[in-house]
Write a structure and sequence with these properties.
This protein is α+β, with helices and mostly antiparallel strands. It has 16 helices and 14 strands. It has a six-stranded antiparallel sheet, with helices on one face. A four-stranded mixed sheet has the order 5-6-11-10. A hairpin with a 2-residue loop joins β10 and β11. α10 packs across α14 and α14 packs antiparallel against α15.
Length: 481
């Protein structure tokens, strides 16, 4: 490899480290949208064909016993081409699936956290600008010996591996359907469903599945939606940063989810529920998934719809609103509020200090819309606290910080905020004493409330007002009742 405009010594080093340099499998990104679209069409054709053609079904059934790997999607496409002439028109999908495999030995500890492959060309340009020749030679040699140009993957290679592994899991499902359609039994596949969900065992009821995120799919079974969650492996991309964490088996995830079905709580205008499991499957090669009821209307940020629901039901909150308005002055000059909202001019501060005179624009007053936003914020905070406390009471910890979503309901004529817990893959028993944990958590929450809202702007309503800050203290005052 001859490089222009570098020292002779550095050129010699570049020549001597070529055995420590790995050329990427692919250097140009494919149109991922086109690839996914063609794959969806191809698997749809395969699904229809395996129902209608016994010979094709027999060929596909064998794929259920194969390991999840990067070659499996290409095998499906090749078999499909023997029975369906249209399969030959799937380009660039055919080329994409038949690229050499990304070395699995480099997918360590997982796809997301795998080491990044450094470009030798780029390194030469950078190193050539710094230090003397001796330093440049040493840096280049040291980088090569540390595997910078060999023992890693490019971003494009990571994407290629992740996409083909995801496609491979689609092939496993097609193989599963083929085996059960031929009544061959499902040797090597353990499938369990709850009573009343027997239709899930019939693959003819499985219409299609759509990927929601890394391991999560929406599946249409007998014209009803379900959530399918694969057991996370190091071949999935949604990983914790820095390391691969071994997760629960799908059966363990199912069992824990069932346990939490007995932990549904309704407390005032807050409801706590948990994702409902309906079945799981284990394949002999380790591929696994759990099925859950589909939860409609969930959101990660319920503050805006909840605030509007409160505004639309003002009559239900009028007494509380009047009480907050009456007591607003008690917290108007709370230290955590005056720091941000007092008139910061010299004369404004002097007038307040000498005469207790406030800027007219800071007169304690709150609109119902402001009240509704604060009420929504407190309900949101209380819902998360209820979930955390119930986890503690059940002796569990969750290493995933965002394993919940929300839904705004109407209950007894009032808006109700429901929090739905999920992602049981990261639940694990706590070794700490439950009573101590609960007491420490409640003390922590009380201390947090003393600090105020900790929020300075709404997603949809601009900055948090002084009135809203003060109203929060009125509404969370433990002595108000």
């Amino acid at each position: 490899m001859v490089v222009a405009d570098i020292d002779t010594g550095l050129q010699q080093v570049v020549d001597s480290i070529q055995h420590l340099v790995r050329k990427p499998i692919v250097s140009t990104e494919y149109d991922e949208k086109a690839i996914k679209k063609q794959w969806k069409i191809a698997t749809g054709v395969a699904r229809d064909l395996l129902r209608a053609n016994p010979e094709f079904r027999k060929s596909i059934a064998e794929l259920a016993t194969y390991d999840v790997d990067q070659a499996l999607p290409a095998q499906l496409l090749d078999i499909l081409g023997q029975f369906e002439p249209r399969a030959g028109a799937f380009e660039p999908l055919h080329e994409y699936l038949h690229l050499p495999e990304v070395p699995e030995s480099l997918l360590t500890p997982d796809i997301f956290n795998a080491r990044l492959l450094h470009s030798l060309d780029f390194a030469i340009r950078v190193i050539n600008f710094g230090g003397n020749e001796e330093w440049r030679i040493e840096e280049m040699r040291k980088s090569a010996e540390n595997g910078f140009y060999r023992d890693g993957l490019t971003k494009i290679e990571k994407g290629l591996a992740a996409r083909r592994y995801a496609f491979s899991r689609d092939v496993k499902m097609l193989g599963f359907m083929a085996r059960t359609l031929d009544q061959e039994g499902i040797e090597g596949i353990e499938m369990h469903v709850e009573p009343g969900y027997e239709k899930l065992l019939d693959p003819q009821n499985w219409n299609h599945r759509e990927q929601l995120k890394d391991r999560v799919y929406i599946v249409d079974i007998d014209d009803k939606k379900y959530v399918m969650k694969e057991r996370k492996t190091r071949l999935h991309t949604d990983q914790k940063k820095g390391k691969y964490v071994t997760t629960k088996s799908s059966q363990e995830e199912f069992d824990i989810a069932k346990q939490f079905q007995n932990a549904q709580i309704t407390q005032d205008d807050i409801k706590l529920s948990w994702e409902k499991p309906v079945g799981y499957a284990n394949f002999a090669d380790g591929y696994q998934f759990t099925l859950f009821e589909f939860e409609d209307g969930l959101t990660s940020n319920p503050l805006t719809p909840l605030a509007y629901a409160i505004i639309d039901n003002r009559d239900q909150y009028e007494d509380e609103f009047q009480e907050v308005s009456k007591n607003l002055r008690n917290y108007w000059n709370h230290e955590s509020i005056t720091f941000w909202y007092d008139d910061d001019t010299f004369m404004g501060k002097l007038k307040y200090k000498l005469f207790g005179t406030e800027n007219p624009k800071n007169t304690p007053k709150i609109s119902f819309e402001e009240f509704a936003r604060v009420k929504a914020f407190i309900m949101w905070n209380d819902a998360k606290g209820l979930l955390d406390e119930q986890m503690i009471r059940l002796g569990c910890d969750n290493s995933d910080v965002d394993g919940h979503l929300f839904r705004v309901n109407s209950f007894n004529g009032r808006p109700q905020l429901e929090i739905v817990g999920f992602d049981f893959e990261y639940f694990f028993p706590s070794s700490e004493n439950m009573e101590n944990r609960l007491r420490n958590y409640q003390d922590f929450k009380q201390e947090e409330e003393k600090k105020g809202m900790g929020l300075y702007s709404w997603d949809d309503f601009g900055k948090v007002s002084r009135a809203e800050k003060a109203a929060y203290f009125v509404m969370t005052d433990p002595t108000k009742n």
